[in-house]
Structure formats: structure tokens, C-alpha cells
Write a structure and sequence with these properties.
Blueprint lengths: L1 H21 L11 H22 L7 H18 L2 H33 L2 H12 L2 H20 L6 H22 L16 H31 L1
Keywords: Membrane, Signal, Transmembrane, Transmembrane helix
């Protein structure tokens, strides 16, 4: 069940931490990218500022906005020369924003448009699908995040995968320990009360491994093309 899957993930993360940290290396210096990264940070921060002004801070409890924030802070770290923080956020931000886009466009949007009553579908289209802000954080977020890695591709190590799993586990802990008891069921697939919740936890972890391997294959192709 979900409890067993959660415990297994937590124990695996703890047990693999020394090995993962042994592969850690700061992000390589890229002075030519500092100004573009600073501009990207400004864009990311402006989106966050707009959100705070319009609806407050509560969306920071969502996976979507935490992923956007991770990408924004990563741009800042690269712009001001904090290579350790930049590296630590590299895979978590890529993973989080990939999950956001996949879940939104392959799960939530089609699910609502196909299954909800007409009135709900209409409001969802007008206020969610056609919202410029929500398109930015559910669509633009992925190329926004990938652009930094594409401009400076790096081979991802075990640490990067571990950091992504730790990020996901930290959010799951927050969701199960804080949001779910408060009745804020933002993501029904994270429920601890259904047997299939554990399958989703395991599937998400497997997807992280696949993304990590895919990005490494892409980095290798980019390196060979530039050689």
C-alpha cells in the first residue's frame, strides 16, 4: 500500500545518500550565461510576484509553483555564481516541471473536459485552460526550465537522480503530513487511503529514473554534435 511504498522510498533515499553525495560536483562555470540567466530569473520572479499580488501565497503549496520556484532559483544561482545550489536544483527543477506538464495536459485537462458536467467544463476552459498565467506555469514552464540545461548540458550523476527523488519525497511528506490532514486534497493520486496510491509513488519514481537517463542520453548527443 501507500504507507509501505512511502517507507521504502524514504529508506532507499537515506541509504543511498552517502553514495549519491560522493558523486556531487558543482555546476561548471559559464560566465557568458550569467546575464541570460539573470534575465530568466527576472521573468520567473515576475511570474511569482504576479501570483502573490493576485491570489496570495497559498499556491506555493502546490507542486506546480514549487517547481516553478525551483527553476527560478536555479537561474539566480547560475547568474550570481552559486554553483553548488545551481547543481542541487538542476534535476529537481527539470523533473518537477516535466511532471507538471505531463500531469496537466495528459491527466487533468482531458479528464475534466471529458468527464465533468458542461458548466464545469466551460468554466474550466475559460478560467484554467485559457488563462495566460496558468499556461505559463503549466506549459511555458518546461521550455523555460529546459533552456538553461540545453545551453549548458551536463552529464547527470547519481547525486542528481537522488536529489530529484529527495525533492519528490519531501513534497510527498508535506502533502501527506500537512495538506491531506487539512483536507486540501490537491492531487487525488497522492492519496494514502487507496491501495493504488503506492503504485503511483513507485511509478513516479520510475519516471524520474527514465527522465534522468533520457537527459543523459540527450547530453551525450549534444556533446558529440559539438565535438
Amino acid at each position: 500500500g501507500p504507507a509501505l511504498a512511502y517507507a521504502a522510498l524514504a529508506l532507499a533515499a537515506l541509504a543511498s545518500a552517502p553514495l549519491a553525495w560522493g558523486s556531487f560536483a558543482p555546476a561548471p562555470e559559464a560566465a557568458a550565461l550569467r546575464l541570460p540567466r539573470l534575465a530568466a530569473f527576472g521573468f520567473g520572479a515576475a511570474v511569482l510576484g504576479h501570483m502573490f499580488a493576485q491570489v496570495g501565497v497559498w499556491p506555493m503549496a502546490t507542486w506546480t509553483m514549487l517547481g516553478w520556484t525551483a527553476a527560478t532559483v536555479r537561474f539566480l544561482a547560475g547568474a550570481i555564481g552559486w554553483p553548488c545550489l545551481q547543481r542541487a536544483l538542476t534535476f529537481p527543477s527539470l523533473m518537477a516541471n516535466t511532471v507538471t506538464v505531463v500531469v496537466w495536459y495528459l491527466g487533468i485537462v482531458p479528464g475534466v473536459l471529458l468527464m465533468a458536467p458542461e458548466g464545469v467544463r466551460r468554466r474550466f476552459r475559460e478560467h484554467m485552460v485559457l488563462s495566460a498565467f496558468l499556461f505559463i506555469v503549466h506549459g511555458v514552464n518546461l521550455p523555460f526550465c529546459l533552456a538553461d540545461w540545453y545551453l549548458q548540458p551536463m552529464q547527470l550523476e547519481l547525486f542528481d537522480l537522488w536529489a530529484g527523488v529527495a525533492y519528490g519525497l519531501a513534497y510527498l511528506t508535506f502533502y501527506l503530513g500537512v495538506l491531506d490532514p487539512l483536507g486540501a486534497h490537491l492531487y487525488f493520486v497522492l492519496t494514502p487511503r487507496k491501495w493504488w496510491g503506492g503504485l503511483f509513488y513507485a511509478g513516479l519514481t520510475g519516471s524520474m529514473v527514465a527522465l534522468w537517463a533520457g537527459l543523459n542520453a540527450w547530453a551525450a548527443r549534444l556533446a558529440s554534435a559539438g565535438a
